[in-house]
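#structure-requests
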Amino acid sequence: MLIVWDKLFETGISEIDAQHKRLVDLINRVYDDFATSGTVVNLNQILSELTEYTKYHFRTEENYFEEFKYPDTDAHKTEHRKFVEKVQEFVDKVKTRKAVVNYEIINFLKDWLINHILDSDKKYIVLFKQNGL
């Protein structure tokens, strides 16, 4: 296991916390598959699932940004877009065998998610809770 869920990651918003836990689980699955020399087919499946679920999670947050008029919407959406682009680029390279999973990408996934939750996501908590989440 690469990431152990910690109370520090919790936003107190059940929908968002559940989605963050799912993202942690998916990144752990990428790591576990890499660490146990899983098959390329299995890894591609996990990476695709991670990419699609990440997009789903970001849409959830961004819909709330629009609904609640979150003042940092543009900057936060830019962070989301850049992350999705980087992950998609990596997934495409793995599928065409132009890249392999390594500790660099695994650490990128881990560090980005943890830092994003602890910094960027924590900024919207008060607004979301004020609006009933």
